[in-house]
Amino acid sequence: MDPSFANKNQQNLGFIGHVMQRKHSFIHVLLMGGVLLLSMKTAGQKYRIDGLEEDKASLQEDNESLMSKFTNLKKGLLEDEAAKGNNHAFISRLQALLSDPVSEPGVVSKK
């Protein structure tokens, strides 16, 4: 064999040829890259969970605010109708509608 031919063959190995010659190093690089990507994914999930907890707290505050407004409106309607005192059937129907837990907005059944 011509030594210049062997030298050209080594130069023309390309990426696959170099990988085959350095299998151990290539596998090591792939594994370390996988560990890095997995670490980045875990960190991203951690911050996403923190964001969701903040959103949950905000939504709970909004729910409490809406429930207090609803309760105040309900009391106001009942007091107005009681002050008028002219239609007892309407008052009892209004009380039945407002005390129905299905019709109250923001109420979550806890099981």
Mean of residue pLDDT?
A: 77
- How would you sum up the global shape? rod-shaped
Give the termini distance in whole angstroms: 83 Å
User: Count of DSSP E strands?
Assistant: 0
Give the structural class. mainly alpha
Secondary-structure element string? HHHH
- In terms of per-residue confidence, which ranges show pLDDT below 50 for 5 or more consecutive residues? none
Number of helices: 4
The radius of gyration over CA amounts to 36 Å
Largest sheet: none
Strand content: under 5%
Report on the structure:
The chain is built from four helices and no strands. With 111 residues, it is mainly alpha-helical. Helix 3 packs antiparallel against helix 4. The protein starts with a helix and ends in a 12-residue tail after the last helix.
Short description:
With 111 residues, the protein is an all-alpha fold. 82% of the residues lie in helices and 0% in strands.
